[in-house]
Amino acid sequence: MSELSHIDETGAVRMVDVGGKPLSRRRAVAHAQVQMSPATSRRLHDLPKGDALATAQLAGIMAAKRTSELIPLCHPLSLSHIEVTLDVQEGIVDITAVAETTAQTGVEMEALTAASIAALTIYDMCKAVDKAMTIGDVRLLEKLKEQV
User: Fold this and answer.
1) Which of 24, 71, 117, 143 is the most buried (most CB within 10 A)?
2) Strand 134-147's sheet: what is its strand order?
3) Which fold does the domain 24-147 belong to in CATH?
4) CA pair distance 118, 84, nearest whole angstrom
């Protein structure tokens, strides 16, 4: 179990001690996708609950900032940049989330959280008009670390 950073030698969960690590510039990019009917994808700005794209973008940004409250062993980070973009195609919304910080630990969980919550927000806002939507392809696209 020693290769799992959140498990100690006895098998108990733990928060990793990053106190001795140097500060680094960190960047992570994550992706999620919502599949829906083509008709739904054409209505994303005009739904009964409002503009799904604007709401999902804000929800993703807010979620990234609260990742440590949602994922028990994540460190709270001061994020220097969060960007959530939504690319609408026929029947698909591709979500890309970017998170950046200068810290002792990475921001991949913040980027993944932003992409996931943006996808869930689109689902929530569209569920009244499309019962067959799916969320998928949640993955980390990029993780960078450079010394400061």
Assistant:
1) 117
2) 81-89, 92-103, 24-35, 134-147
3) Alpha-Beta Plaits (3.30.70)
4) 8
Token look-up 């913040």 returns 110
- Residue 17: is its pLDDT beyond 80? no
CB 138 within 8 A of CB 30: yes
Contacting residues for 46 by C-beta, under 8 A, at least 6 apart: none
**Among all residues, which ones are annotated catalytic?**
124
Alpha helices in the chain (DSSP H): 38-42, 52-65, 67-70, 108-126
Confidence class of residue 44 from pLDDT cuts 50, 70 and 90?
very high
Identify any residues that bridge with 93 across adjacent strands, giving them in sequence order. Answer: 34, 88
Indicate the pLDDT class of residue 8, thresholds 50, 70 and 90: confident
Q: How close are the terminal C-alpha atoms of the chain, in Å? A: 32
